[in-house]
Structure formats: structure tokens, C-alpha cells
UniProtKB/TrEMBL annotation:
One Pfam family recorded for the sequence: TetR_N
Record key words, sorted: DNA-binding, Transcription, Transcription regulation
InterPro entries for the chain: Homeodomain-like_sf, HTH_TetR, Tet_transcr_reg_TetR-rel_C_sf
Coiled coil spans: none
Residue ranges of every copy of the HTH tetR-type domain listed in the record: 21-81
Keyword Oxidoreductase tagged: no
Protein name: AcrR family transcriptional regulator
Feature: DNA-binding region: 44-63
């Protein structure tokens, strides 16, 4: 990986530098790590407050409810993940016939990273269901942007949008399978095999 390339999105909090952040960022970054690593429902507000080293008054000044914090967590995760994803796709070849290979190698970086815990958006919908409609909306927007980035890899054709949608569906399958097996080798192998056939059909 080039020195100036973005690493796969992982955890944000460095305990040694946490206190150098503004209070809102301390809370948000701490919540990001706890929600992604341990789950949204398993992480209570009191834990976020304690680990971000702020008072309850400070917390509620910036985040009136846990739902507000969840939404801002997902927005932050989206920005970080898409920045890495688009950077890595270009780094691995981008468009020009290397689309499936670029996609597979990009995902290999993330799925093999030590802090990988699946897709934050699929996880949030699985945990929250329809109790937080904003999370469902953000998940749909995130997946739309991921699909658009994949579409940009593909050669122009009448089926380009549909092909990108099929590849995005396969990507989600590889993410989920890696999450529950703990091994990305076979999901990525199957993704590449399937992707090459989708693109050539």
C-alpha cells in the first residue's frame, strides 16, 4: 500500500490522543468504535460517556439522544468508508477492463483488516430494524453510492447499471460471509468468479 493511500476504515480512537479532540469528536469517535466493534444495542450511552471522558451534560449538549448519535455515527462511517473505497478502487486499477479485479483486491484490503466487523450499515439495519427509519435511509444511500462507484469501473453498455447492481449484491454477500466465517479467501474467490461472469454476460 502506497504511503499516501488511505487505509481500510478501522477504529478511530487512540486513548493517548483522545483528550486532544474537541468534546463532540471524542464522543462521536468513541461511539463509532464501540458501535462498530460491539454493536449498537450492546453499547449504552453511559459507556460512551465514560470512554469518551466527557460529562453527561456535555454529551447531551451535542447529542440529544442515542438515535442522534447513531445517525451521526453512520454519516461519519459513510464518509470514511467511501473515501477509502474510491481511493482503493483507483489504486487497484480502476476502470479500463480491470474492474472486477480492482473490486476484488479493494475488498481484500478491508475484509482482511484486523478491525473488520462487517458492514456497519447492514449491521445497523439488522440491529435496529425499522425502529430507526433514518438508519434505513442512510443505508440505502450508502449502498447507492457504493453501487455508483462500482458502475464507474465498468465499460459503457446498456446493461452497465444492472451489472453494477448485481456486483454490489455479490459484494454484500462476500462481506456477510466473511463476517460469519472469519475468512475472506473463499468469499473473494467466489466474488471474482461471479463478477467475471456477470461482466462478460
Amino acid at each position: 500500500m502506497a504511503a499516501d493511500s488511505l487505509p481500510p476504515p478501522g477504529l478511530l480512537v487512540d486513548p493517548e490522543t483522545l483528550d486532544t479532540l474537541a468534546a463532540r469528536d471524542r464522543v462521536l469517535h468513541t461511539a463509532h468504535d464501540l458501535f462498530y466493534r460491539d454493536g449498537i444495542r450492546a453499547t449504552g450511552i453511559d459507556r460512551v460517556i465514560a470512554e469518551s471522558r466527557v460529562t453527561k451534560v456535555t454529551f447531551y449538549r451535542h447529542f440529544p439522544s442515542k438515535n442522534d448519535l447513531i445517525i451521526q455515527y453512520l454519516q461519519l462511517r459513510h464518509e470514511r468508508w467511501m473515501a477509502w473505497f474510491t481511493d482503493a478502487l483507483q489504486r487497484h486499477g480502476g476502470a479500463g477492463g480491470a474492474g472486477v479485479s480492482a473490486l476484488t483486491e479493494t475488498l481484500r484490503e478491508w475484509l482482511a483488516s484486523p478491525n473488520f466487523r462487517g458492514c456497519a450499515f447492514l449491521n445497523s439495519v439488522s440491529e435496529m430494524g425499522t425502529s430507526l427509519p433514518e438508519a434505513v435511509t442512510l443505508t440505502a444511500q450508502h449502498k447507492d453510492e457504493m453501487r455508483s462507484a462500482i458502475q464507474a469501473l465498468l465499460p459503457s453498455s446498456p446493461q452497465r447499471k444492472r451489472t453494477a447492481a448485481a456486483l454490489a449484491l455479490a459484494v454484500d454477500g462476500a462481506i456477510v460471509q466473511t463476517q460469519f466465517t472469519g475468512d475472506s479467501h473463499e468469499p473473494l474467490r467466489q466474488l471474482k468468479w461471479l463478477g467475471e461472469r456477470i461482466v462478460s454476460s
